[in-house]
Write the C-alpha cells for this entry.
Amino acid sequence: MDFLDPLINQYALDHTENESPLLNELNRQTHINILQPRMLSGHLQGRILSVLSKSIRPKNILEIGTYTGYSALCMAEGLSKDGNLYTIDINEEIAPFAEEFFDKSQYKNQITMLIGDALNIIPELNENWDLVFIDADKENYSNYYDAIIENVNVGGMIIADNVLWSGKVTNPTLKNDFETEALKKFNTKVQNDIRVSNTLMPVRDGMMVMIKN
Ligand SMILES: C[S@@+](CC[C@H](N)C(=O)[O-])C[C@H]1O[C@@H](n2cnc3c(N)ncnc32)[C@H](O)[C@@H]1O
C-alpha cells in the first residue's frame, strides 16, 4: 500500500532521480514475467535505498529477501570500491532471473546471491555489516534483527521494509493476523532497543530506518 496521495507520489517521483535503464528493465520484466511484482521496491523506494547506501558508503551489505534483485542493485550503488553485497532468498526459482540482472550490472563481481532460509544462512556468514535490509517473511523480522544486530558495525544502518503493513498495524479490530502481530512486535522491539536510533518513515509500505549506536 502507498500512503501518499497519488498526486503527491507523482510529484515526488517527478523530483526524484530516474531509475537507471537496467533498473527500469528489471522493473518492467518483473511486472511482465514474475508473480507478485508489487513485492519489488520500485522507483521511489529504490532511490531512497540508493541515497541511504551512498550516504554511508558500506563495505558489507546484507539483504534478506532478494526477490528479482531490484533493491540489491539500488543498494549496491553505494558500495565502497572493495565492498560486497550478500543477498539471500529462499526461492530458488527466482535466482536465475535476479542473477541475470546482477550479471548485466557493474556490480556483477560484488554481489553474491545465496539460496536458502535466511535464518540458517546468516549465522554462516562471517561478516560485520554496514548496511542490512530486512525484506523477507514478516513473521521472522524480530528473528532476523536478533540474528544480525551484534554483527552490525557502530554507525551501520539497518532498514526494514513493510513495517506499516498496508496500515494493518494500526487496525485495533484485526485479530490472529500473524504477520501484523509480528510486525507490531518488531516495531516495538526496535523502538525500545537502546542499541539503535530509529525512525519509521511512512514511505510506500513503511520503512524502519535504524542506525547502530
Ligand atoms: C518482498 S520480497 C523482496 C523484495 C526485494 N527486496 C525488492 O525490494 O525488490 C520478499 C522475498 O523474501 C523471500 N523470503 C521469504 N521467506 C524467506 C526466508 N525464510 N529466507 C530467505 N528469503 C525469504 C521471498 O522468496 C521473496 O522473494
The beta strands are 60-64, 84-89, 111-115, 129-134, 152-161, 196-201, 207-212. The pocket of S-adenosylmethionine is lined by residues 39-41, 65, 67, 70-71, 88-91, 94, 117-118, 135-137 (CB under 6 Å). The chain has a mean pLDDT of 96. Residues 84 and 110 are 5 Å apart (CA to CA).
